[in-house]
Structure formats: C-alpha cells, structure tokens
Write a structure and sequence with these properties.
By secondary structure, the chain is of the alpha+beta class. It has one domain. β4 and β5 form a beta hairpin. The longest helix has 47 residues.
Amino acid sequence: MKKWFQKSIIITVALLTFGLISPSHFIWEQILDNKSPSRAISSNVLDYEQVTITDESSLYENLADAAKEQAYIKFGSRIGPVIQNEFDDIIFPKMQEAIDITIAKASNTEVTRLSISEKPSGDYHEKIFNIYNETTKKDLIRFHVRTDKKPQEGYYFNFHYHLSEDKYAKHYVLGDIYWSKNTPPKWLS
C-alpha cells in the first residue's frame, strides 16, 4: 500500500475511535507489514476451546487466531488443504477487516465481553463462527460459508458474513473459492 494511504487510514481510525485504537495494535501491524498469519491445517484441531477476550491489547491477535482456527476446523482435512492458500491470501484478510471494523464500533465494556463461538456446523450447513457478547449472548457478527453450484463451471465456496446492525438480513460477501466440478465433501470431514 502507498505510504500516504496507510497513514490516512491510521489517522482516520484514530480520529473516529478517539484514539482507542492506536498504531501499536495487531491490525496496524498486519496492514503495515502486509502479512497475514498462517497456520498449517492439522487433523487434531477439533480439540478447540472457546476463546474469551479479557485483555484489550491482545484482542485483535486472539480473535484472528481463533477465527482462523475455527475456519480450519470447519474445512476439515479434506477441504482444508485444497483451499488453504486462497483462504489465507484472499478471504481471511477480508474476514479480519470485518472483525476489526465490528469491534471498533463496540463500546469498551462490550469489547471485554466478546467471545468467539466454537463448533462450526458440519454437513452442508453454513456456520463457521460467531462473535458474540458473553453477557447478553447476542451475536455481533456471524461468519458463514455456502456451497454454490454454478452451471457449466462447478462448485464454489461463498464466504460471507451477517451483522446484528441489520438483524442479519444482508449478506456481506468476502469472496468465492472454486472447488471443482465434483461435489465437495461435507464440512468437518
């Protein structure tokens, strides 16, 4: 990214959040370094535990790690290795941006009560994970992946999310990843 654009983003966010998000946070490290964390998919990731955010300084890092872990659990050992690179390079940075924007809108009190759900849905259901308020049990943002079949092309995985702001009615598309012309296996397999 151009330096002036990076600085503009940092200044804009700092002004909009009254300085609550500073350039030392994880989001800025990712933007400025132009990196996304990567993690190998393993078959034993099903022993995942719920992550509760208690330290605001590590909020972005904790949610990023937990979000990626839940996605890999959802993909399973059959889908994961095939789509991992595209997910890491294209989908996950957009997912992280959506999480960061949603958290920036939350109050300081609410931020300390955020958790990420565990146990993504299997079979052909869409749920990857939700970020919710532990006290109210209300979801702030829901991340889904849907399997779409396009005639003459084959199967695609459509990654999207829903926000509580519009009562989860609108699909905010993160992107598509092509699978093949063959039917993909069930999630978690």
